[in-house]
Amino acid sequence: MIRVVLVDDQELIRAGLRALLASVPDVEVVAEAGDGVAGLAVVRRHLPDVVLMDLRMPGGDGLTATAQITRDASLNGVRVLVLTTFDEATEIDSAIRAGAAGYLLKDIGSDDLRRAVRVVAAGDNLLSPAVTRHVMDRLASQDAPAEPDPRLARLTEREREVLSRVGLGETNQEIGEALFISPATARTYVSRILAKLGARDRTQLAVIAHREGLA
Description:
There is one protein chain. Helices cover about 50% and strands about 15% of the residues. The protein is an alpha/beta fold. It folds into two domains: about 140 residues, Rossmann fold (3-Layer(aba) Sandwich), CATH 3.40.50; about 70 residues, Arc Repressor Mutant, subunit A. A six-stranded parallel β-sheet has the order 2-1-3-4-5-6, sandwiched between helices. α5 links the parallel β5 and β6.
C-alpha cells in the first residue's frame, strides 16, 4: 500500500485529490495539511511514502517544507511530489534543488496523477511534459561545454545507454522495455550511474545527459 499525505492550502483541492486517490486500490491518503509547517508535522507523524506538496501556501511554503523533508535522515523513505499551478523556471529549479522527486502542474489528468504517485513511490523521479520542456529549453539555451565531462569516462557503454534514456525522462520500466532488461536491472544501472557521476537524483542525471548531448 502506498501511503500519501496531501499538503495544500485549498481544502477543495485536497478533497478532490483525496477522492481521486480513493479509487486506487493500492493508494491510501493517511493525512493532510493546509501549509508547509503543518505538512512537515504530519509527515513526521505518519511517515508516508509520497507527499503531494503545493508550493505557495500562507503559513509555511512548500519549498521550505520539501527541503526539510528531503534533508531529514529520519524521513529518508519519504518522496515529495510537487503539485502546483506555477511553471516558472525559478520555481522548478528551486523545487529540484530542494530535493523534490517530481514536479507536476495541477492541470495534469487524473490517470497521469495516479501513475505519477506510483512512479515516485517506486523510487523514480518525474517531471510533467510541460515542466520537462522548460528545463530542456533552458539547457538548450546554454553554451555546450567545451570539453566532455570527464566523469563520463567512468561509465560502461551500457550505462551510457541507460543515462541517455534517463535524459529522455523514462522510468525504470520504460528503460527496461527499451533495452530489453528488467526494471530491477534498470534500477541497478541507474544507482551505479548516480554513484559514478556523483549525482543526487535522476533529475541531475537528465541534466548531465542533455548537457553532454547523450539524450
